Amino acid sequence: MIGSGIFALPSQMAASAAPGPLLIGWVITGVGMLTLAFVFQTLASRKPDVDGGVYGYARAGFGNYIGFTSAFGYWVSAWVGNVAYLVLLFSTLGYFFPQFEGGATVPAIFGASVVLWIVHAMTLRGVQTAAFVNVVVTIAKVVPILVFIAIAAVGFNAGLFSADFWGKTTQIDGVPLGDTMAQVKNMMLVTVWVFIGIEGASVYSQRAARRRDVGRATVLGFVGVLALLLMVNLLSYGLMAQAELAGVPDPSMAGVLESQVGHWGAALISIGLVISLLGALIAWVLLCVEILRLPALEHVMPKALARENTHGAPASALWLTNLCVQALLLWTLANSSTYTNLVYLATSLILLPYLWSAAYQVLLALRGETYEAGHRRARDLVIGAVALGYAVWLVYAGGWQYLLVAAVFYLVGTALYLWARRESRLPAFSKPEWAVFAVVTVTAVLAVTMMATGNLAVL
């Protein structure tokens, strides 16, 4: 979960909401994400035979094709997020090497490509090697964040924090923030981005020695990251005026700390972010291949994606993933796509997989499945319903344009699903799945039509 989001949080939030709406949004996010964490915890214990997290729960509850769309959407979200990491990585290195400034220059994209294929080669050496490296960088990246929190707490100015608490007079680039509800809605996609990864333990559930560790890791990870996010976000509002804070370039945590202690502060945060991004890139490359490997074992993705090399790494899935990352890196060079654009696209693609997981818990509780004695059924139904409501709200807050683009990805990806069903000599769709496929097709055609006429642009 701790990747790039926390380092860009101060300016991204300041551009969306004043402290009052910000606090309301964090309460909604905290409750919503906590219920999602409880969903993954509950499903891990009640359905220990279902592997793959967001993919496995969608498939078990709603059929093969919905399971496929959940896995495919999650996979696309993950590798698009990796492109965002690489863009921000070299944008950050621009602090030390001006030729990388902005992250989308020719030298930056070349450097990002080199890093990508180094990580690729390391992952081909085996999952354990990459996981060990990630443990080391996880420890290293938390230290600069804690330094920022300590300095921000000392320098916090309550008058700055409360100056325009509800955002009635503040303008960002000459544009008002809007009413309270608009501000809350505007910040929601950013809050989802910083929590993506909450489902990571459940995606790896097949590899867990003990199933209860899946739920424990999910909840403990959520609580720890939420505490860091709240402190970084709220303290930054007491260090700079909101309009000024919103204009700090990414990684904004570096600029904020520089305003307090000078250049060494920006250098410290930049180094921490570089370490964090490298660790996040490794972690998400591993998640990308895992979310393809499991469906391939269950005739939902082509069998080739489950093949492992002599080191136990799913090589075919890894090659497919990183070739897609490379292609989108070149696209960002040609189209000057920013880190924020990539973040919003990656976030929107993961919303439906979250929704299906919450819906599966509601379905289990309503049916009484695994609740033969009735124990905790009402509690889990309420938690599942809140998580499902939160997921629906996120889809709404994300905006219709991202749903349209997601449908295009799903339709293109369906070729992989049809390939898998054909090679296993299984029927492509059940009757309900034909209806789902029709909705995806119509939505994708509408999206392509709007793109062609210039009425839809995400990247």
TrEMBL record:
Query: What Gene Ontology molecular function terms does this protein carry?
Result: arginine:ornithine antiporter activity
What is one process in the GO biological process aspect for this record?
Answer: L-arginine transmembrane transport
Task: Tell me which UniProt keywords the record has, alphabetically.
Answer: Amino-acid transport, Cell membrane, Membrane, Transmembrane, Transmembrane helix, Transport
Asked if the Swiss-Prot or TrEMBL record annotates the protein with the keyword Cytoplasm, the reply is no
Pfam families hit by this protein: AA_permease_2 (PF13520)
Q: How does it sit in the membrane?
A: Multi-pass membrane protein
Q: Which InterPro entries match?
A: AA/rel_permease1 (IPR002293), Amino_acid_antiprt (IPR004754), APC_superfamily (IPR050367), Arg/Orn_antiprt_ArcD (IPR022461)
| Keyword Transcription regulation appears in the UniProt entry | no
Recorded protein name is Arginine-ornithine antiporter
